[in-house]
Amino acid sequence: MRQLEEYAAKSSKLSVIESLIESGAMSRSDLAEKIGLSRSALTELSRELIEAGLVRETSVVHDGQRQGRPSVLLALNENRGYVLGVSLQDETALLVLCDIHGNVLQNHSFELTTRPEACAAAIRDGMKYILQNKGIQKKNLLGIGLAISGFVDPHSGVCIRSNELDWSDVPIVSVVQRVTGVPTYLENDANAVATGEKLFGNTRKLRNFTIVTLSYAIGAGHYIGGRLYRGASGGAGEIGHYTMDPNGLSCRCGKKGCLDTISGIAAMVDLARNQSLAVENLQDIERLASVGNTAATGILRNAGQALGLAVSYLIQTNNPEAVLFAFTEDIEGGIFLTAVRQAIENNILPRFLPSTKLLFHRAAKSFWARGAASIAAHEFLRTQASL
Ligand SMILES: [Zn+2]
Known about the structure:
Elements: H1 2-23, E1 26-27, H2 28-35, H3 39-51, E2 55-60, E3 71-76, E4 82-88, E5 92-99, E6 104-111, H4 116-134, E7 141-148, E8 151-153, E9 158-162, E10 167-170, H5 172-180, E11 184-188, H6 189-200, E12 209-214, E13 218-224, E14 227-229, H7 260-263, H8 265-274, H9 282-290, H10 294-318, E15 322-327, H11 335-347, E16 357-362, H12 367-385
Parallel strand pairs: 4-7, 7-11, 12-15, 15-16
Antiparallel strand pairs: 1-3, 2-3, 4-5, 5-6, 8-9, 9-10, 12-13, 13-14
Helix pairs in contact: 2-3, 4-5, 6-12, 9-10, 10-11
Bound molecules: zinc ion.
């Protein structure tokens, strides 16, 4: 019985924290109602969370309130500490320092090296630089989150396979933890971004959504019922390797005609160069298409249609409230995203149309690293709530 009560108290603490993340500051009575607790049970829980430094009281004066006491609200305590996020993708890796609300306080880039020890040393040096620069003591650093493209096991902290880093079974969490002396957490880059958006960003209030990340390759992360859905072995979301054309181009995963070989930015640039177009990125292809280049237009249409078709399958499988496309290039209003939207609208059952929001989000370069920081923040909050 006692064990049951302890379990209930822990899960209620986590619910308080999740509610404050989803809705921002809330009064005790609104929190009690949302979680389904008595006012006195909530008061006791909030006392413990305030003592642990996770939650703080804040007061607001409502419009027109001239007399009487201002309302007391509970909010996450942003002074509790800071988190670092590291995105190990592209040639330039990025490290960001965030507060517990996901505000990026400083970033620092370093050349990506694929040797795990050297990578950990670069993270340590970047961490020292940022902490010194911001006048923050290391003891106030709550954790480091790592986002890696590929298959990872967050529980063991092992990168099982990353084609980009050419890592197989690398225990990167223990290496980084040993070198930096800071608790470290690992996640796949698309899952990190999905957690970042749930914790800090555009999808805070949603319980069922998918993030599709458009970069060198295509990634996806899903929240289902308010929780990150990783699948049985962390592979949920590998839409980049949906087979879209069984007779298509060879993919780096060993299969043929994967979505990545048609709609990944690296693939589009390669396809364009093979047709003698001088392009460096997706924006360049869009620019050529906008002045009537038919080869560029064809690549963008084809890529957009393939991605839209893949996402239409995903919508009918998971029935999300929203699909958020995140990209770092200036491609809004271009042919590619228009084709994505059209292909989704043409291929999902009509009844899904009004209930599925399609969001297109131009993300800052720090987007992936901020997602990584959210992994550390989420793990910290979750661990503290269960103490
Ligand atoms: Zn593939």
